[in-house]
Design goal:
Helix 3 packs antiparallel against helix 4. By secondary structure, the protein is of the alpha/beta class. It has 2 domains: 182 residues, UDP N-Acetylglucosamine Acyltransferase, domain 1, CATH 2.160.10.10; 46 residues. The radius of gyration is 28 Å and the shape is elongated. Strand 15 and strand 16 form a beta hairpin. The protein has 5 helices and 16 strands. The termini are far apart.
Length: 230
């Protein structure tokens, strides 16, 4: 019964977070993220019982069928949703809390070759955007969002929004009143400063060009006057 409740919770998560999902049957039949999670439930149960090869074999088949690679040892919480899913990779020591959403191309990878905790921990209600890479034994706090294409290699506090390469915090969400506090973005500020400076240089060049044109005109008139007097 607990497993059935978990499966139904995953279907409900897809229906709530994907506006393209029309009914539970569509999710059950045609959503590769849901299928990969079904395979992982079985593989993880066998992995925890010490089965040597069967769990990896199950997930190998799942990767072939869905394009999603999940290690049997990864811990995945309830109401997990992978949207589209192609290219998602979840490492062995990854820990995922409840109500987590991953988009296509996400990597939850490791950096160590030792048999230790080397993959990320994602707390509850985390969203990781398409193509983002979360690398190493770091922790992403609850309610945080990782922007598409970001590379995150350090811990992320709760309620934060992270973007960029390497990832940096650009906003915090206040869960008490659902407001978002924007933080200064150094990279964006540098880009704006460069654009402002380029515009200033362009105006200076135009001014110099106008001045040189005026000098050329005066010089030309002076030459014509001298020729006329001669």
């Amino acid at each position: 019964m607990r497993t059935l409740n978990g499966i139904w919770g995953d279907i409900q998560a897809a229906l709530e977070r994907d506006p393209a999902a029309r009914n539970w049957l569509e999710v059950a039949l045609f959503y590769p993220g849901f299928h990969a999670r079904l395979f992982h439930r079985l593989a993880n149960a066998l992995h925890r019982r010490g089965m040597p090869l069967a769990p990896r074999g199950i997930m190998h088949v799942a990767r072939f069928l869905t394009g999603i690679e999940i290690h049997p040892g990864a811990h995945i919480g309830p109401r997990f949703f992978i949207d589209h899913g192609m290219g998602v990779v979840i490492g062995e020591t990854t820990w995922i809390g409840k109500d987590v959403t991953l988009y296509q191309g996400v990597t939850l990878g490791g950096t160590s070759t030792q048999r230790v905790k080397r993959h990320p921990t994602l707390r509850s209600n985390v969203t990781v955007g398409a193509g983002a890479k979360v690398i190493g034994a770091i922790e992403v706090g609850e309610n945080s969002q990782i922007g598409a294409g970001s590379v995150v290699v350090t811990n992320v506090p709760a309620n934060a929004t992270v973007v960029g390469v390497p990832g940096h915090i650009v906003a915090f969400r206040d869960t008490s009143n659902r407001t978002v506090q924007r933080l200064p973005d150094p990279e964006w500020e540098r880009i704006n400063e460069l654009e402002r400076r380029i515009e200033e240089l362009y105006r200076e060049i135009e001014h110099v060009a106008e001045h040189m044109g005026e000098l050329h005109r005066v010089q030309h008139e002076k030459s014509e006057q001298e020729e006329a007097r001669a």
